[in-house]
Amino acid sequence: MLPTSFIPVSHLTETASVRVSAEQRQLIHMAASILLDYPTPERYENFPLIRSELTAAKLPTPVAQALSRFLEAPEFDDLQSLEKHYVSIFDLKRRATMYLSYYLTGDTRKRGTALVRFTEAYRAGGCEVDRDELPDYLPMVLEFSAVGDTQIAGDLLSSHREGIELLRTTLESSGSPYAGLVAAICMTLPVIDRATKERYLKLITDGPPAEMVGATAMGPLEPFTFGETNGSH
């Protein structure tokens, strides 16, 4: 598909929240954690099992349809094609990064503080990062949501909702099957509030921040505190 200069209006609409059980949410987040990670041969071997478990879970129709956009994509059945597509999308687009704090801070001096907040959140949930990866990596946050403290993970995901919505929008406008995975994640999150929607639309226009000197319009990034979210039920 050739690159486009336009984003369809439908892609600018936040994803509606869908009611799922706690067990279904954990399964969706664990599956998305693996499927959104770089498709190594070891991970790819588990794809058929993941598809089988998602099908057996009898998820709500909107979630199941969103997931099927990836699970039934031609790239899903060929590792080499999937690797090539993954790099073209996630390694080369500033608006399609897996690192959540980048959407709020960009490559600015606030990024370090933002990363510390993720590490502190994991520790508040009784976990330490045991992987050579930055703590704001979306697949890692989703794994924490599936196997760690779901409430703290929910705080992390909700407080970075505008970035997740921008990721979904970018993937949809690029025609990437990965858009279905991110859309399914958004469906499991609380209804987006007006302030978060405004930040999401601003991200669409401006993109992640560039380096700034002194205070920024975002204000200081405080240490992680449990219960701190931008969205609510």
How is this structure best described in words?
The chain is mainly α and 233 residues long. The protein has one domain: TorD-like (Orthogonal Bundle). The chain is built from twelve helices and no strands. Helix 1 (22-36) runs antiparallel to helix 11. The protein is globular. The protein starts with 21 loop residues before the first helix and ends in a 27-residue tail after the last helix. 38% of the residues are buried. The model is unreliable at 212-233 (pLDDT under 50). Keywords: Nitrate assimilation. This is Nitrate reductase molybdenum cofactor assembly chaperone. It comes from Flaviflexus equikiangi. Pfam families: Nitrate_red_del (PF02613). InterPro entries: DMSO/NO3_reduct_chaperone, NO3_reductase_chaperone_NarJ, TorD-like_sf.
- Reported by name, the CATH topology is TorD-like
**Uncertain parts:** 212-233
Structural class: mainly alpha
Helix content: 55-70%
What is the rounded distance between the termini? 38 Å
Question: Which band does the percent of strand residues land in?
Answer: under 5%
How many helices? Answer: 12
The largest sheet is: none
Radius of gyration: 17 Å
Name of the CATH class: Mainly Alpha
What is the residue-mean pLDDT, rounded to a whole number?
A: 81
- Overall domain count: 1
Q: How do the helices and strands follow one another from N- to C-terminus?
A: HHHHHHHHHHHH
Give the second-level CATH assignment, the architecture: Orthogonal Bundle
Give the assembly state of these chains. Answer: single chain
Please provide the count of β strands.
0
Give the CA-based shape. Answer: globular
Keywords: Nitrate assimilation
Organism: Flaviflexus equikiangi
Pfam family, one: Nitrate_red_del
Protein name: Nitrate reductase molybdenum cofactor assembly chaperone
